């Protein structure tokens, strides 16, 4: 059947589209990571999305709304993110050497995410302490909301933010994953 | 930002098989691979300017058809027919394909999309940037022209 589109022709287009700089978001789905399936997205400015247990259809609509409609699966642009995630999840990397695209987030949420990036590997902090570092010590609850909506978990380590009494409290990707990541980093035993 | 069109991935997945089949029938396997990439790169460039997400399949096929026409215009010395790969199950298309080369572009696109690809007139109209009625007119004008040309003497 010569008229059937083969995977190599398909992949060649996806690579060419990225190489030509024509994509608003290049994304890929990693089905088999240590934290389960992940959908990741990158723009020309950096990583814009890491999503646990993705519903691709919903997620693509969301990316199109935020960054533009040219959202296409393309593995090349996300290669480096994939490698760094694999290394991190294997315990062989402590920091991500990647830019993050936080377009569209301003004010307090933006400052919180900026401060979040400075919490080091294996450390934890509390919602209240992070609120204080972002300039509003009484906004612990608002910090919880920002963590819950963190577009790039793992890369921006919202798993390192815990309750004032040391309880894990909550995690967008499920508490079992927060525990797994903190254990991986040696923050809990 | 209001999203008028679906994410490109959804559009691409929805149309890529048809576009590739169309191009293979027109250009053969080897030519189709390059033209396929060119079709969707052009679609990507134009995508943010689309105002709605209707008739996207017809739109993609029209881009593909335009690329085929450009290739033939560049490659073909006057009078020579393009080489065509035969394809099962589309006899009317095969008969049409070598004949439509000399039609005006709009008529050719309308004839090919209607009779070779079996699109409805509203889809063809949207793809050609005109109305269903104008698409019907272009297709029937194309067919009339073909009839008069095929009944003329051939050298």
What does this structure look like?
The complex is a heterodimer of chains A (189) and B (155). Chain A is of the alpha/beta class and 189 residues long. Chain A has two domains: 83 residues, 2-Layer Sandwich (Double Stranded RNA Binding Domain), CATH 3.30.160; 78 residues, Winged helix-like DNA-binding domain superfamily/Winged helix DNA-binding domain (Arc Repressor Mutant, subunit A). Chain A has seven helices and six strands; from the N terminus they run αβββαβααβααβα. In chain A, α5 packs across α6. With 155 residues, chain B is mainly α. In chain B, α4 crosses α6. Chain B starts with 7 loop residues before the first helix and ends with a helix. About 8% of the residues of chain B have low confidence. Chains A and B meet through α1, α2 and β4 of A and α1 of B.
**pLDDT averaged over residues of chain B:** 80
Largest beta-sheet details of chain B: none
Share in helix of chain B: 55-70%
CATH domain topology of the largest domain in chain A: Double Stranded RNA Binding Domain
SS summary, helix count of chain A: 7
Specify the CATH class of the largest domain in chain A. Alpha Beta
> What is the overall number of helices of chain B?
6
Strand order of the largest sheet of chain A: 3-2-1-4
Main traits of this protein?
heterodimer, A: 189 residues, Double Stranded RNA Binding Domain, Arc Repressor Mutant, subunit A, 2 domains, two-stranded parallel sheet, 7 helices, B: 155 residues, mainly alpha, Butyryl-CoA Dehydrogenase, subunit A, domain 3, 68% helix
Short description:
The complex is a heterodimer of chains A (189) and B (155). With 189 residues, chain A is an alpha/beta fold.
SSE layout and pairings?
The complex is a heterodimer of chains A (189) and B (155).
Chain A: H1 7-19, E1 25-33, E2 36-43, E3 46-52, H2 56-67, E4 71-73, H3 79-89, H4 107-116, E5 125-126, H5 127-133, H6 140-148, E6 161-162, H7 175-184
Parallel strand pairs in A: 1-4, 5-6
Antiparallel strand pairs in A: 1-2, 2-3
Helix pairs in contact in A: 5-6
Chain B: H1 8-46, H2 56-75, H3 91-96, H4 105-116, H5 121-128, H6 132-151
Helix pairs in contact in B: 1-2, 2-4, 2-5, 4-5, 4-6, 5-6
């Amino acid at each position: 059947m010569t008229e059937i589109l083969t995977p190599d022709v398909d992949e060649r287009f996806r690579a060419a589209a990225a190489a030509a700089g024509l994509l608003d978001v290049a994304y890929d789905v990693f089905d088999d990571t240590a934290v389960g399936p992940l959908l990741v997205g990158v723009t020309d400015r950096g990583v814009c999305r890491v999503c646990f247990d993705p519903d691709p259809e919903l997620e693509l609509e969301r990316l199109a709304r935020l960054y533009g409609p040219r959202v296409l699966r393309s593995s090349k642009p996300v290669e480096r993110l994939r490698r760094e995630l694999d290394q991190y999840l294997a315990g062989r990397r402590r920091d991500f050497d990647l830019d993050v695209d936080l377009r569209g987030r301003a004010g307090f949420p933006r400052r919180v995410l900026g401060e979040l990036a400075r919490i080091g590997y294996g450390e934890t902090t509390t919602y209240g302490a992070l609120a204080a570092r972002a300039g509003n010590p009484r906004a612990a609850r608002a910090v919880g909301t920002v963590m819950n909506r963190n577009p790039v978990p793992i890369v921006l380590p919202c798993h390192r933010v815990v309750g004032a009494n040391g309880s894990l409290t909550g995690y967008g990707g499920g508490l079992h994953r927060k525990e797994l990541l903190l254990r991986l980093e040696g923050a809990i035993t | 930002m209001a999203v008028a069109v679906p994410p490109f991935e959804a559009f691409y997945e929805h149309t890529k098989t048809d576009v590739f089949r169309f191009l293979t029938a027109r250009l053969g396997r080897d030519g189709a691979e390059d033209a396929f990439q060119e079709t969707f790169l052009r679609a990507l460039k134009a995508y943010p300017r689309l105002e709605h997400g209707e008739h996207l399949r017809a739109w993609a096929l029209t881009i593909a058809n335009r690329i085929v026409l450009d290739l033939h215009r560049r490659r073909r010395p006057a009078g020579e027919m393009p080489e065509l790969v035969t394809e099962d199950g589309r006899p009317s298309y095969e008969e049409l394909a070598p004949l439509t080369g000399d039609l005006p572009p709009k008529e050719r696109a309308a004839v090919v999309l209607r009779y070779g690809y079996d699109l409805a007139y509203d889809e063809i109209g949207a793809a050609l940037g005109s109305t269903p009625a104008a698409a019907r007119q272009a297709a029937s004008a194309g067919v009339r022209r073909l009839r008069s040309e095929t009944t003329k003497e051939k050298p």
